[in-house]
Write a structure and sequence with these properties.
single chain, 171 residues, alpha+beta, 6-stranded mixed β-sheet, two-stranded antiparallel ribbon, 2 helices
Length: 171
């Protein structure tokens, strides 16, 4: 629909004016609406890690749930969620049960600095997750059906090689 910004009224506010359209209006009645999970804040079981450092869970209503700072196998109870049409993201959760890959981070400020998304995972789990991300991308995006096994080899130390920092500014 073409629109234009109307001149500002005397009170200084602005509003959009839409060009007139024909009076014909068509309403498409939706097919049966999907039944949504009554509460996307019911506990989520984290299945795997996805690009960006978040964990993924499948919710009862067919949507996907994302949480940062989780490990595969974790059971989390979201306390605050952002709901979208196809997915839900939790911004705050309680850890109900730890997965087998969760460890205490070797860095005291790992949860606050944001530089190491997976430091709460064992080294082997980090490597497995990286391998699965590469294989998943090659299958889905690259279209490869069969792939050879991929070994992750670390040439340097297990810690102290990361070069990432996230700064948050409150304003």
């Amino acid at each position: 629909t073409p629109c234009r910004l109307s001149p500002a009224p005397s009170d200084g506010s602005r509003f959009l004016a839409f060009a007139k359209r024909p009076a014909t209006v068509r309403y498409d009645m939706p097919a049966k609406a999907k039944k949504r999970d009554p509460s996307p804040s019911s506990p989520w079981r984290i299945e795997k890690l996805v690009p960006g450092g978040e964990g993924m869970a499948r919710l009862g209503d067919g949507r996907i749930g994302f949480a940062r700072g989780v490990a595969p196998g974790d059971l989390v109870a979201p306390r605050a969620v952002q709901e979208h049409k196809r997915f839900v993201r939790t911004t705050d959760f309680a850890l109900v049960e730890s997965g087998p890959a969760r460890v205490a981070p070797p860095c005291a400020i790992a949860d606050r600095c944001g530089g190491c998304d997976w430091m709460h995972l064992s080294l082997e789990a980090q490597r497995d997750a990286k391998r699965e991300l590469v294989l998943d991308a090659l299958r889905r995006i690259g279209g490869f059906a069969e792939l050879p096994s991929i070994d992750i080899v670390s040439e340097g130390p297990d810690l102290g090689y990361r070069r990432r920092l996230r700064l948050h500014v409150a304003g």
